[in-house]
Design goal:
alpha+beta, seven-stranded antiparallel sheet, single chain, 7 strands
Length: 126
């Protein structure tokens, strides 16, 4: 019998919201071929291909500070053990009002967790 573990996944994802808000992360991507972060300190990527960049504007190679922040965030994301490929977030008054997390999922190819605001219900689109 299949048992849905989405409530647990939702809770895990919401656990990293304070870090996203602290660093004001709008885009994060960590895949073998593409690593991006668009946050309060700038836009950084290891690959300038248009298929890699998930944000508008100029992009820079990772500098020491951006790389340290990316590694810190990556460890937090990886600790969830949810195979998050990338996420996008919109913030208002330093709080997440919209976020979309793309999860790699063996059963569904890719699932997305979307939050509209912290006061509204969360839901999953498969």
């Amino acid at each position: 019998m299949y048992k849905c573990d989405m409530p647990k996944k939702v809770s895990q994802i919401e656990g990293i919201f304070p870090i996203i808000e602290q660093y004001q992360v709008q885009v994060y991507r960590n895949q073998d071929w593409c690593k991006d972060i668009y946050y309060s300190k700038g836009n950084y990527s290891n690959n300038t291909a248009s298929t890699c960049i998930l944000f508008q504007g100029s992009v820079q190679d990772f500098d020491g500070r951006a790389l340290k922040d990316f590694i810190f965030l990556s460890r937090k994301v990886e600790s969830l053990k949810l195979d998050i490929a990338y996420f996008e977030a919109r913030l208002e008054n330093s709080k997440i009002c919209y976020a979309e997390f793309h999860l790699d999922c063996a059963m569904c190819a890719r699932a997305r967790y979307i939050i509209l605001s912290q006061s509204m219900a969360s839901y999953l689109i498969m």
